[in-house]
Amino acid sequence: MKNHRRLLLTGLLCLPLLAWSGCTRSDASKADDDLLAHGHYLVHQVAMCTDCHSPRDATGAFVPGKELTGAPLGFQPVVPMPWTPNAPGIAGLPEGYTEQALVRYLTTGVRPGNLPPTLPPMPPYRMNQHDAEAVAAYLVSLAR
């Protein structure tokens, strides 16, 4: 009987600790989910990354399951200028980038490893820190 009381008392004393640790994990998970949702919104609705970085079929529709995996651009400038004919894959992360390097690029325009600036039609984004972190987190979450 004494052991049952001791076990019950130990369980009651641990309940607040278990409840607190569960809330903390849920809060962190919710924050991660919110960051990914914000990144998804920025990538798909604001920056419109899919327009250039996703392949299309012969009808111009996006190829299902290939979003943000890179694609040839279906347009070009009408006057001579520096230009890239292909948009690289950015699902996972662009080649040569870490998550931190991508955040730096999106906030400052500085690419990792002394790479030259990106060529048009890639716009020179200058996102705030939170938006850049959300975009990077979202891209990292995508499988290549």
Structural description of this entry:
- With 144 residues, the protein is mainly alpha-helical.
- The protein has one domain: Cytochrome Bc1 Complex, Chain D, domain 2.
- It is built from 4 helices and 2 strands.
- The protein has helices at 2-46, 50-53, 99-108, 129-141, and strands at 71-72, 86-87.
- The protein has a two-stranded antiparallel sheet.
- Helix 3 packs across helix 4.
- The longest helix has 45 residues, at 2-46.
- The chain is globular.
Structural class: mainly alpha
Q: What fold name stands as the CATH topology?
A: Cytochrome Bc1 Complex, Chain D, domain 2
* Topology, number of strands: 2
What is the C-alpha radius of gyration, as a whole number of Å?
A: 23 Å
Shape: globular
Please indicate the percent range of residues in DSSP E strands (runs of 2 or more).
under 5%
Q: How many domains, in number, for the residues?
A: 1
What's the pLDDT, averaged over the residues? Answer: 86
Instruction: Report the total helices.
Output: 4
Helix content: 40-55%
Describe the biggest sheet?
A: 2 strands, antiparallel
What is the CATH level 1 assignment? Mainly Alpha
Question: What is the correct CATH architecture?
Answer: Orthogonal Bundle
